[in-house]
Amino acid sequence: MRGRPKQQTTLFSLRMPGDRVPAGHPLRRVKDMADAALAALSPTFDKMYSGTGRPSIPPEQLLKSCLLMAFYSARSERLFCEQLDYNLLFRWFLDMGMEDASFDHSTFSQNRDRLLEHDVARRFFLAVMGQAQSAGLTSSEHFSVDGSLIEAWASLKSFRPKDEKDDNQEPPDDKGNPTVNFHGQKRGNATHASTTDPEVRLARKGSGKEARRPKPGAGRPGARAASLKSARPRYRRTGR
């Protein structure tokens, strides 16, 4: 018998977003670890915000949103916030109900400095590492050092001459994705820098390869469990 689409949807639903997430989904274990680490940071969050005024977006949701953007390769915070409006998996991971509105992408830029000022990212990392150590998943006897080029969230279009003044720049035809013509121009770290992320460096793997936008860094993973135990940016002054 042929099934036909229902012309009228269900008016009320007793299901929660988490009911749609499979029991064996890997994000379930990630959520448990992240929630435990963030609970330990609650006193720090209290110091970050005023005791009066309009309630902010919970910092726990902002930090867990960064995890989702990394896991699912969200190209931008704007795109992530759009997906958050209809993605049940994302809503469940952030402890949001069906009626909760998605927050605006500007929330990230408004709160990023506050999170950096209180060293929240590093404390979050150390809290998760503490869970791994308590579970016996790490060892201080064996480790290795890995040099990596971490792809940055900065466009090649954001690289401008360092000596260029704002008065000399023409208004972009599209603020979100302006048209840029680099034909015939030579760009290097000695002469150009990213306007959106000054720490990004231009690099390529070999002659004739395309330029990439990495952040050089060093990681210290455990040799046995292959878990990252520390990470830090590493810069080298070069004109290439």
TrEMBL record:
Pfam families: DUF772. Residues 216-226 have a biased composition (Low complexity). Transmembrane segments: none annotated. Residues 198-213 have a biased composition (Basic and acidic residues). It comes from the Bacteria. InterPro entries: Transposase_InsH_N. Residues 231-240 have a biased composition (Basic residues). Residues 160-240 are annotated as: Disordered. Residues 19-114 form the Transposase InsH N-terminal domain. This is Transposase, is4-like protein. It comes from Corallococcus coralloides (strain ATCC 25202 / DSM 2259 / NBRC 100086 / M2) (Myxococcus coralloides).
